[in-house]
Amino acid sequence: MKFFVFTIFPQIVECYAGYGIVKQAIKKGKLELHTVDIRKFAHKGQVDDVAYGGMPGMVIKPEPVFKAYEDVVKNHGKPYTIIPQPWGKRLTQEDMDKFSTFESLAVLCGRYEGFDERVRTLADEEFSLGDFVISGGEIFALTLLEGVARLLPDVLSEPESLKRDSFRRWLGAPVYTRPPEFKGMKVPEVLLSGNHQLIKLWELWHSIERTYKLRPDIIPKDMNPFESFLLYLIMRGKSFEQWLEEVGHEGAFKSLQSMQLSGGGYDIPEGKPTAERTSQEGTP
Predict the structure, then answer these.
(1) Catalytic (active site) residue 203
(2) Beta bridge partners of 110
């Protein structure tokens, strides 16, 4: 993938690209990063001017941006082009997934009061990181760069982790590392058991619980019966440990096996709430 960042501060992007996942993606030949210094295309390096109408602040002039953009198109072809704007569409994981399949992307980073309005004609889309204002588009560009780079094939050393990312379905489950106890806070016994089936159930439970408590707006509408059942229990304040004590390890394993074999189905024990009942009682 070719990734172009049009900016008056290329050092910001180049510095960031020397670390972490972005560096690995470049090193493995999966990502070509091109910083385009808009100042080099401006007369005497002057990229901004006062706003017409007596409005406050300085505005990025259209001429150097168009010259820089046309130079890239001439040498590399037209990239899919994004301008960060406060009113733009909120960037999501779904957008990251989509953009990671593109051959080339470009981000036009404004500064001061933004670009001359005519620069917007270069954009395919306008995006935002949220309902707030910062002084330039570079932070957005770096966010998109990082989010896309980690999705490119063979960049992550453990690509399985992509399937466990938050927003794939549920939010991610809690994670722990050594030591097993720190300042009186202990790692859950399940994670130290070495029982991978039980750990998988623990992970699903806590992903559902975290989503319900922190982001109920993204609870999947296509929950399978087993997920609905776990959500039902969580909504009523039951913990994983309490459920495990009630059904036992064997019952928990049967639950997981049923889910795997039927593509998500779960044989609800007699007397327990059904997925349909859960839905009727307000599950999103």
Answers:
(1) no
(2) none
